[in-house]
Specification:
- By secondary structure, the protein is α/β, with parallel strands linked by helices.
- 36% of the residues lie in helices and 15% in strands.
- The strands form two sheets. It has a seven-stranded mixed sheet with strand order 1-7-6-5-4-2-3, with helices on both faces. Strands 8-9-12-11-10 form a five-stranded mixed sheet.
- Helix 2 runs parallel beside helix 9.
- The model has no long low-confidence stretch (mean pLDDT 96).
Length: 381
């Protein structure tokens, strides 16, 4: 039988019971090499774990199924996935368009590393599709989208931007980390490649670092697999196993993240210390209608400004008790951070610099009343 339900795929795709023992959980194949039945006689294609490992294969097949892709590839980190993708599809002289509100690590990779190879780039507010179209050059090879963006939760119309990219013979890449494949599947809307930091919602428990690429085109998947093997930043078997463990509960976790975020947003919206709240679930959010169309729900990420300015934002980050001050996001526990001094410090002084009075929270799956009470006491000092 063919199953299409997300939760069913998350638990079963790539995860048949072990043929030898019947174990229902994919084993951790903690091995570097494999016995061969004669020279070149590989068993099921396995020869060396940088190239291929059964635990990683299970994760890659599962992620491909969840994103409706032709192939998935698992990496040691989200940045390793991004680096491998860019070095596969770009050459000196090429041009890339990135979001005007991009993750600091992506901006750092492109502006400090990729640029040195002779690749040019432009940062564009991709909530304005006409601005994306105007930024396209004859040598544009990649249009890189985040939606929702990190940290200002901007929403990009994936279908329209994919069309713009394809008209220019460019790839449309979507970083789907904030939404996860449960809330949004960019490949079904026309994107070519999905990027994940699986450290975040896919893993979901703040105990493993990883990354992934899922592609719509099998030939591109082969090219990426060649570079993955050649460059070597692959997910180890235990990391792949932990991530696969997290995937199983992704659907139920994202429901709770989204429900709690909506409660938190309602409390922030009415608080006199809060300036602006950034959350695509708000009717007043400029991308609300697009998010409503291309997302199942609006996720667990919320950003907001403080009327008291940067110091008030810093003070708030120090006062919370349930929200832990820390980088990263997407775990079961709630986190709070100051993007300007933490995750997005690399954008300081650039066009992507984030507001100094901005706070970003990753709303976890704790009891919603406790999260609201914690933020309220912290705001009131």
């Amino acid at each position: 039988m063919k199953f299409d339900g997300f939760e069913t795929l998350a638990i079963h795709a790539g995860q048949e019971p072990d043929a030898g023992t019947g174990a229902v959980v994919v084993p951790i194949y903690q091995t570097s090499t494999y016995a061969q039945d004669g020279v070149g006689g590989m068993r099921q294609g396995y020869e060396y774990s940088r190239t291929k490992n059964p635990t990683r294969t299970a994760l890659e097949e599962c992620l491909a199924a969840l994103e409706s892709g032709a192939r998935g590839l698992a990496f040691a980190s989200g940045m390793a996935a991004e680096d491998t993708l860019l070095r596969t599809v770009l050459s000196p002289g090429d041009h890339i368009i990135i979001p005007g509100d991009a993750y600091g690590g992506t901006f750092r990779l492109i502006s400090k590393v990729v640029e040195r190879w002779g690749v040019t780039w432009d940062a564009v507010d991709q909530t304005d599709v006409d601005a994306v179209r105007d930024a396209v050059r004859p040598n544009t090879r990649v249009v890189w989208t985040e939606t929702p963006t990190n940290p200002l939760l901007g929403i990009t119309d994936i279908e329209t931007v994919a069309q713009i990219a394809h008209e220019a013979d460019a790839l449309h890449v979507v970083d789907n980390t904030f939404a996860s494949p449960y809330l949004q599947r960019p490949l079904t809307l026309g994107a070519d490649v999905v990027v994940h930091s699986t450290t975040k919602y896919v893993g979901g428990h703040s105990d493993v670092v990883g990354g992934a690429l899922v592609v719509a085109d099998a030939e591109l998947g082969e090219r990426l697999a060649f570079h993955q093997n050649t460059m070597g930043a692959v997910a180890g078997p235990f990391d792949a196993w932990l991530t696969l463990r997290g995937v199983k509960t992704l659907g139920v976790r994202m429901d709770r993240h989204s429900e709690n975020a909506e409660r938190v947003v309602a409390a922030l919206e009415g608080h006199p210390a809060v300036g602006r709240v950034y959350y695509p679930g708000l009717d007043t959010h400029p991308g609300h209608k697009i998010a409503e169309r291309q997302m199942r729900a609006f996720g667990g990420m919320v950003s907001f400004t403080l009327r008291g300015g940067e110091q008030a934002a810093l003070d708030l980050c120090e006062r919370t008790k349930v929200f832990t001050l820390g980088e990263s996001l997407g775990g079961v526990e709630s986190l709070i951070e100051h993007p300007g001094r933490m995750t997005h410090a690399s954008t300081a002084g650039s066009a992507l610099e984030v507001p100094a009075d901005l706070v970003r929270i990753s709303v976890g799956i704790e009891f919603g009343d406790d999260l609201v009470a914690d933020l309220t006491q912290a705001l009131e000092g």
